[in-house]
Specification:
Elements (H helix, E strand, L loop, with lengths): L4 H12 L2 H18 L32 H16 L2 H18 L7 H11 L3 E6 L5 H9 L5 E6 L1 H4 L10
Parallel strand pairs: 1-2
């Protein structure tokens, strides 16, 4: 598991407020959990449960040239939990964060991306929920002014209420 489109989908939602991106992130995350997640102890394996069986199934957590896939997965789970309020994402995120906390204890400097996830989880953003017939221009202008990483925004309009999955299938 590495950083991918999967990680970007919640960010795409934050830019467009199209629920199809959240739906796609949910679909991919459900498959990720099903095929790679250790649901008992936390952590993601680098190959699927039904893949070729090696002598051991390690779960890498340290950052190399790229951030840890386990830390990236924790970030996606955490953000999906906040954006959707779904218990299954919160449960998986908590298990994953616990796994990462144990792994980072002995060498925090090798787990920079996990530390960023912990910071986001420990000091979560403020949340703004807007339910309206259309996206208010004042809100759109406010969000365009500058990046607001301290603010999680959920916009519900009739247009965004039902995911249009065809429009975001990128595979």
């Amino acid at each position: 598991y590495t950083l991918s489109l999967h990680d970007a989908l919640p960010i795409f939602y934050g830019v467009t407020f199209r629920t199809a991106y959240l739906a796609e992130a949910g679909d991919l995350t459900a498959r990720l959990l099903e095929q790679f997640f250790d649901g008992k102890n936390g952590g993601f394996y680098p190959y699927a449960a039904d893949g070729a069986q090696l002598i051991t199934r390690t779960k890498e957590t340290y950052d190399g040239a790229m951030p840890s896939g386990n830390a990236a997965a924790a970030l996606v789970l955490s953000r999906l939990a906040r954006l959707t309020g779904e218990a299954r994402w919160r449960t998986a995120a908590d298990l994953q964060l616990g796994y990462l906390a144990g792994a980072t204890r002995t060498y925090p400097a090798g787990h920079g991306f996990a530390m960023l996830v912990f910071l986001e989880e420990l000091w979560p953003s403020a949340e703004l929920v807007c339910a309206a017939r259309t996206m208010p221009e004042e809100l759109a202008a406010f969000l365009r002014e500058a990046s607001r990483p301290e603010l999680t925004v959920l916009v519900k309009t009739p247009e965004t209420a039902t995911p249009d999955r065809k429009s975001t299938r990128l595979n």
